[in-house]
Amino acid sequence: DAGVTQSPTHLIKTRGQQVTLRCSPKSGHDTVSWYQQALGQGPQFIFQYYEEEERQRGNFPDRFSGHQFPNYSSELNVNALLLGDSALYLCASSLFGGVSIDEQYFGPGTRLTVT
Amino acid sequence: DAKTTQPTSMDCAEGRAANLPCNHSTISGNEYVYWYRQIHSQGPQYIIHGLKNNETNEMASLIITEDRKSSTLILPHATLRDTAVYYCIVRVAPYYPVQSGSEKLVFGKGMKLTVNP
What we know:
Shape of chain B: globular
Radius of gyration of chain B: 14 Å
Order of helices and strands of chain B: EEEEEEEEE
Strand order of the largest sheet of chain B: 1-9-8-3-4
Mean pLDDT of chain B: 89
Helix content of chain B: under 10%
Oligomer: heterodimer
Largest sheet of chain B: 5 strands, mixed
């Protein structure tokens, strides 16, 4: 049973560029959440997708956008990159509306470096 | 903002029990206590959760005080592989019918546990 997978593993971009990160949820999961983790900090919630719609959003600017596909995989897009966007980007999947209390499964993350 | 406070760091000897404290004095009646850990360069991993009763699984035990204002995660026999940052989180857990907005996790800075040989 494949867990949450993310690609690429590492990425280096220049200020002002745009980046797309990808996530495939754990088998059987239909909800994807994205988190940003700066060095030395805990992960911060960016947004969550279910049924191809953004359901919740954290305190992140519109430069951060996402998409969910019919197969439940998801993309995170960041436009006009800033140095401060350098971080580990984590994807977490879960089952929306499950009868039992669930837990979120995290992928290994994508390390983004903006120079 | 995170609703929990944890020590910044803690050391534990290999083979001994590791007791990780967490304060959550403003916890609401419908909020659960969740614990995750993050081993270096990996994504967070779910450990355990509880509402008001003590819980145990194959990874750890969770002891929640009667007033629910604090809890302790217990790793009964710590190993070197338990070295990680541990996050204590309180949140409303999803249930049927689903509450919108109940699934996101609000992480604090966590507590670094170092297990020494």
